[in-house]
Fold:
Amino acid sequence: MTGQTVGDLRTLVTRRAGLRRKVALLAADASLTTALEQNGCTVLVDPESLDAVTAFHPDVVVAFDGFAAEGAAGFTRLAQAAPGAELVFSFANASASSVLLRALLGVSPAPTSSERDVRAWLREAGFVVSSRDVVVTPHVDSGLSADTEAALRQLFEQLNPDAAADRLLLVAKRGAEASVPERTAGLTTVIVSGGEDAAALEGTLRSAAGQLQSPLELMVISPLPELRLEELAKAAKGRAGLTLVLVGEAPADALERTNFGLSRARGQYVCCLEAGELLDRSHVSSLVERLKAGTEAWALSSPPVDLGRRFELKAWLDAGAVQRGRYVVDRERIGTFPLSFATGLELGEAMVFCRLAALFPPAWNASAPTLDSPRTVNASASALLEAMRSRPLRTMGSLADGLQEPAPVDVVEVLNERLAQKSEVAGRVLGQARGLVERVRDAAVKARAQAKLEKK
Structure:
């Protein structure tokens, strides 16, 4: 742990360590020691062994990257040495954009840890994480083109927002932790968000429960009382291959309810519906099968309007065909991509649709619509661009688009447009002349065809 890095963390670590407490600092850093002492703390600096930590009876233990070298074993021994102490642990983020860029450029990164691994080690040692902070260090020029570096960093951060954090700081203490649902491979979760309209919710529940997909987890989230949900979900109970989860008295915001469901869904595949939407029986199964047959991360069903044969994001936005029930996502294939909706934002659904499309080409074949959605969704491309102006979605560009042959230029049409800009009369005259030429040409073709018939 270098003094410079500790210096960047000094204020944060000191604040987390608290006031007038006994702190075991598992590092030799004079500046951090001084900061802690000025905060009223009694500090044990760089103890020789965990026995010294035990004898000190600390309230807080502060540790850094090197402590993670032994993985869970080190945290387990610390928990035994100071079972009542709070742990403040800071480490270099393995998924940081800066680390990834250096690795891509052939520079060996300093020791890092992934948050997933650290949390697993803490959990194994009996710790529960109570808070989390991120640290972003000053930018260091990588030598790449500035535009290329910016685009790469934004790609990393689209896949994992925590890529912006150079370091992470977790505060943990021994205790019991609520069980987190484990993702089940091959399981599909359909999340139904419903408001106060019981009739609309019941119709969607019947439609979702009748899906051909199996195994299926059906999660219903509504502000209605749970007993009322039990009544509405009678048709789903007892169906083979279906697990029913009811969450009553939920938040009023539809996207907040959906996010709640996503945080607790066990399925590898997820589809999110809103009350009032109805599905063809094969809606979910056809999308899941399309994902299983290919390598894409999400699969789209067709809207009730013709959008051509090739997926074009702008066309889907213009059609407003971005309802969350229109697609199924494979959560394994999106990796650390945050599948959640911005609450309180009218563009929330469209924004997730765009974020997915920016990173993951969808599996889509034009076919008959299998979702009937009465909802109109705001998907204005200009409004989305404005909302994301501070952090626009960027890609490195598509080679296919760059190599695509340009469409042939209609010289007469271009000339007509330019003349019309200069003089409305000139443009009208040229248009009349062009029409006359086309009529003469058409008459000549018909005359030749008639002559051939007469010779026969």
Observations:
- The chain has a mean pLDDT of 86.
